[in-house]
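Re-run requested by the PI after the first attempt was lost when the workstation crashed. Everything re-entered from the original request form. Ligand of interest: trimethylamine oxide.
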Amino acid sequence: MFSKSMKLGLALSMCLALPAVASAAAPESDDPIIIVQNNWTSQLVLSTVVGKVLEGMGYTVEFAPSDSQLQFKAIADGDMHFQIEAWEGSMKGAFEKAVAEDGMVDAGTHDAVTREEWWVPQYVVDKCPGLPDWKALNKCASIFTVAETAPKGRFVGPPADWGKNYAERVKALGMDFVAINVGQAATLWAELDAAASKEEPIVLFNWTPNFIEAKHKGMFIDFPEPEGDKCAKDPSWGMNPDMVNDCGAPRSGWLKKAAWKGLEAKYPEAWKVIKAINFDNAQIAAASLLVDVDGMSTEEAAEKWIADNQALIAKWKGM
Ligand code: TMO
């Protein structure tokens, strides 16, 4: 048996030998931490990055795919534990409702400034004078016509779960467009590549930070700017007095983290890491570029991103 002082000495030397103060007490529970995954590249890569970091601290991690609107209620209920990329343009309504009504925790805002909006490649700007103003775009609607939308123009819209009702915006603003949603993000880029190779007009949903900036020049369309919740909730606001959604998405949107309220008490060291995570635009764009331009798998991209960001990750861990 050890004497009291020997035990103390042993305990002290063990403490000194531990490299990471932040992970000294983890894992507080072997129950899995369930990380939400959505259907766009940066979210998939960065959620995998965070999962690997938590695994490295000794936690058991599971990933659960979720719809980007329904996820917030699931997080509030503790069925899933956190989300690393909640975007204002497409998720503000569902996010804020889950905080206000269901007790979901707003786990902080990243430095990244985001935008999700109709977007045209640069060569379209020459074919349609007056861009990026939405009224100028609308005057050119006919150059975006396809058989499916004739005589109106086609807006290549996002997968349905990215929240915005673009058909409603088109109606509220009286635009000569039909919104045709894609099933998955990859279809957006396939449509863009196909159009760009022939310099055919296209207007599609895009966002920033994203990998696209590195591959195609272009610009977002400027719609009337929303003012708080008024455009989404008050029909009398904006140029259409009878309808909501007569505006665009915010031009400088937030990017937030969302968490289950029980996370802090059950996994305190993991919570500190999640609180500390703060992505900027370049870090998010890099994550998507590794997959969508360099052709890596999500797993490979996560490993590469971790290797490229060692100092940052050490900071998350309080090292
Ligand atoms: C939800 N997203 C960032 C793809 O627009």
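Saved to the shared folder this time. The CA atoms of residues 122 and 299 lie 33 Å apart.
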